[in-house]
Task: inverse folding
């Protein structure tokens, strides 16, 4: 049995079924909405929500046609929710990773022929590791970022976010 992730490489729009497109949006956007909606009544002033988006928002890959727009939706959702809940003292931000080496890449997130050079085109010349993203999440969860809301932080290996 193969499990399809929300990020699957497709060479053509013709390869993306309506079911796959819907699943990607339900996984990446609907789930975020439902989780935030359920969590908000339990969050006290000073709490923070940290969403994960992607550099795909700013530099979408042609083979991630269904995935990239979900990450754009997450940016808009983050900025809108941040304004909505600021008066409650709750902050909402997002992290936008660039190429990061995770099991997602080798399970269909990238074409197999691209795996050996995955991340090589960023200025640092390599994909990131999950542990290299952790400090920004810790910062955004801490009171050291108490004056930050509605922002998107890139962890991209040197490809700047616009």
Result:
């Amino acid at each position: 049995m193969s499990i399809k992730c929300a990020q699957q490489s497709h060479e053509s729009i013709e390869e993306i079924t309506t079911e796959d497109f819907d699943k990607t949006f339900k996984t990446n956007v609907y789930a975020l909405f439902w989780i935030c909606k359920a969590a908000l009544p339990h969050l006290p002033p000073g709490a923070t929500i940290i969403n994960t988006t992607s550099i795909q928002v700013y530099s979408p890959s042609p083979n991630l046609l269904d995935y990239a727009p979900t990450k754009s939706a997450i940016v808009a959702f983050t900025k809108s929710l941040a304004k909505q809940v600021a008066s409650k003292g709750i902050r909402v931000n997002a992290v936008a990773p660039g190429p990061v080496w995770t099991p997602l890449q080798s399970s269909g997130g990238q074409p197999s022929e691209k795996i050996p050079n995955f991340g090589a085109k960023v200025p640092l010349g390599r994909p990131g590791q999950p542990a290299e993203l952790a400090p920004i999440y810790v910062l955004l969860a801490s009171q050291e970022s108490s004056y930050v809301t509605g922002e998107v932080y890139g962890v991209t290996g040197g490809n700047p976010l616009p």
User: Anything to note?
Assistant: The helical segments are 18-39, 68-85, 103-109, 130-141. DSSP finds four helices and three strands in the chain. Residues 14-155 form a domain with the Rossmann fold fold (CATH 3.40.50.720).
